[in-house]
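Backbone-to-sequence.
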């Protein structure tokens, strides 16, 4: 009897989950996705990171992408679909930055079925402040801001890498990214209304992670560490 119980418990723990994290730029999607990926042992797929890696390669495709990113616009649905197909596991992932258009949502349906959509929201004053202050480590991608300052200015605490401002975190581009979000991505909240878990992002990363884990726990998804 006991043995049976154990097997059952195990089954509950080894749940296979597929998440999307949705929300305007600067709400902390990347930070939350990172926290969740560690606590739930999921792969964190950020299409923004995938694109920036292409840009670093300085290929002709990378140059084209760089130009789109610097304007705060979206790269084409087809380009991002190909990039996603190459990088999306079958299970246990959190998708950050995709889909961003209705077209991408229907593309994704053909590739994989999502269980939950975490909708992270913040007020725009906080978003603008956060993005303007954000610095990221060139090496390990750790994020710093006005609430988390590095010990040595411009140097990553974790790995010693250089901290830079993302090219698209300039005031003009931030404004455009917010407009792009409203126009092209916000309609997805309604599209996914049956799968949405609303999370208030106007708080510290630890609190936002805690609230999200609690919501997931209520749905039978438990943190493993
Ligand atoms: P943020 O969510 O803060 O804007 P990301 O790193 O997710 O940051 O994305 C940075 C940029 O990469 C976007 O402004 C957009 O130009 C491009 N991008 C990322 N994901 C997609 C996508 N799914 N479709 C089109 N463009 C994308
Ligand atoms: Zn670092």
């Amino acid at each position: 009897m006991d043995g049976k119980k154990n097997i059952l418990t195990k089954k509950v723990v080894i749940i296979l989950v597929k998440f999307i994290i949705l929300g305007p730029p600067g709400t902390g999607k990347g930070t939350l996705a990172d926290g969740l990926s560690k606590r739930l042992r999921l792969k964190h797929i950020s299409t923004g990171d995938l694109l920036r890696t292409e840009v670093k390669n300085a290929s002709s495709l990378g140059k084209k992408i760089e130009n789109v990113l610097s304007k705060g616009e979206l790269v084409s649905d087809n380009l991002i679909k190909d990039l996603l197909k190459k990088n999306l596991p079958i299970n246990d992932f959190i998708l950050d930055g995709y889909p961003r258009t209705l077209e991408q949502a229907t593309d994704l349906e053909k590739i994989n079925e999502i269980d939950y959509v975490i909708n992270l929201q913040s007020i725009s004053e906080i978003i603008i402040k956060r993005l303007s202050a954000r610095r990221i480590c060139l090496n390990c991608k750790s994020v710093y801001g006005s609430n988390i300052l590095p010990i040595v200015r411009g140097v990553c605490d974790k790995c010693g890498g250089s901290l830079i401002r993302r090219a698209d975190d300039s005031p003009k581009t931030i404004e455009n990214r917010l407009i792009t979000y409203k126009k092209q991505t916000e309609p997805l909240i309604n599209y996914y209304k049956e799968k949405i878990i609303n999370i208030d992002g106007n708080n510290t990363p630890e609190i936002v992670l805690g609230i999200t884990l609690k919501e997931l726990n209520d749905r039978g998804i438990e943190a493993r560490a």
